[in-house]
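WARN retry 2 of 3 for item q-0093 after timeout on previous attempt; input resubmitted unchanged.
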Amino acid sequence: MKRTTTRLTAAAFLAAAVLGQPQLASANAIAGPACDFNGDSRSDLAVGAPGESVGNLDSAGSVNVLYSSGSGVSTAGNVLINQDNPGIVGVAERGDAFGHASACGDFNNDGFGDLAVGVPHESVEVATGDVYDAGAVNIFYGSAIGLTTIGNQVFTQSSPGIPDVAERTDEFGSAVAAGDFNNDGRDDLAIGAPTENVNGSNQAGNVIVLYGKSAGLSTDGSQNWHQGSAGIAGDVEAGDKFGSSLTTGDFNDDGRADLVVGSPGDSITDQAAAGTVNVIYGSAAGLAATGNQMLNQSTADIPGNWEKNDLFGQSVAAGDFNNDGHDDLAVGVPGEDDGDTPDAGAVNVIYGSANANGLQANWSQIFTRAGMLLGGAPATGDQFGTALATGNFNGQAGDDLAIGAPGTIVNSNVAAGRLTVLYGGLTGLSPLVNQQISQGVNNVEGLSEAGDYLGYALATGDFDGNGRVDLAAGAPGEAVGDQSSGGAVNVLYGTAGFLSTSTDQIWTQDSVGVHGVSQAHDRFGGPAMSVGEYRIGFKAGTKVKVTNDFLKHDPLGRIDMSGVQAGPDYEIAAARSGVIKYIVDTNAEPTDDGNYVWIEHADGEWSKYSHLKTGSVTSRGHKVGDFVTAGTVLGLEGDVGIASGDHLHFMVSVPYDLADPITSGGFVKGLDRNPVTCGVPGNALFRGQTYTVVGC
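OK item q-0093 returned
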């Protein structure tokens, strides 16, 4: 739908502290203290809306920039940025997801913060034609009047000088992080492409590093890092998703930034997606393999049990929690089971050392809600640790840590979301000094509602310039008026004690004076939706024949599959964790589907399971509003509705009219959807082939 857009001159157009994706210190659509684009000593706030339509281009994406004043974030001079703005390199296209991730740094050392914006679903033109979902990053430079279009750049993996090539579904720009890796006074930029094919392994992932020069970022001396790089710990494996999250910090106090790379899909022994992080240290020549580390919950002295789908490394953030001059590392583990509670989540903290050896596993902690006085007992699907951000909120010794748990139930509202803040001190982080923040509680602006997902993205910055760091928290599922998932951002200000819940603000695209209009699935303050990565909805070990793949099904974009072994009825399993939004189990509706289950996932994507056997869902106790983990049996394969024999009709889509989910389903990214499939060997499927499901 048509949007109100402020057109930019070549002189000025944006400013930010940055919000947008999950996901994540660096996959965020929010950024931090370096985001002072006009040099007034206050951080500015840039908020990604990756689902924003530009003209009639759905999910082309945009970034709202709100400048700060002495009283905090304000609307004065705010702008709405997209790739159709005059003077910006690139062209807005359907599904680009401009604003999915962002980071700030001074790339040209002129004293003004610059902004990098991830566009992970950008199509890249190469000699053989357009490469869908290859990805790109736009760079905007700061000045005394804020960010301008002057000298703005766009980088892809096919840019001259980058040691790689753009390929379909690389999703370059899914995460970005800035830091001065060679201590030359100019910040450098790390860019994640977590679904890059490396040495024949699908979705192994890589990270491209661009170095700052006097004129800004350059491909001269750029690097390509992955787990197959010479000297780097780990092995290249399908589904590792190296580069899903990024952060920088100086862990060995040598004056150079070091890079942390999250691989939440990495397997540990036989535990798929237990997750790891790699740490690559800076040197006079930039990032180098010397002394690099791979850390996970199987590393000696790091607490926690490595298990399937823990997703250790889904988020990462650096800060000096014990005020010893060395940065420390917080790692989100949102899929961690807390006792018998699935996907409750956890955060590991690993401390930097004074002996120049970097992070030391023997100085490690784990924080969960169970037994740690962190907001009560854990619940299934809290996903504590989905997002992390650091800063000194109270001006006392040691940085503090903000933790997002977007799946938390608040006042019976499933996935309303909650923030936990742990405060630092001379002995590091302690659960004894913590703060719990939810919308509508203790004067916090907004209302906690089902599916808000508060805490899915976090960022920090000193927005009022008082020397204390402030916190911005995205709630991308927030309904704005009647616009589902329009999205909102809460801003909480630092004080001498705790983050204030009485002076906070809430921002949406419908806030007075803010450019743009909130519409369904904008996901202001959150990540872009997936491009439709298919997952097999059968239990692991089941032999499945695909009768229609996503390119052959009529209409396109759906998959039909059926179990082919003799025996009892086949069990249909949830392919991803999420909240059940709709159930029909009586074959009473006059639809093609007969019976179905809709599940909403935290990233805004929905998955749908159709033709299920009558009564097989409710007999398992499932009901609307339940959170189910990946692998949970939903029901049995059936042949109700328009079905030729028992089979599962599976699709990934978004219902634009929640009152009419069946006929209003908008299929994610249309014909350009990701052909990769999680759940079968080789991660690809085709009509007529038979596969044994291996799980995700």
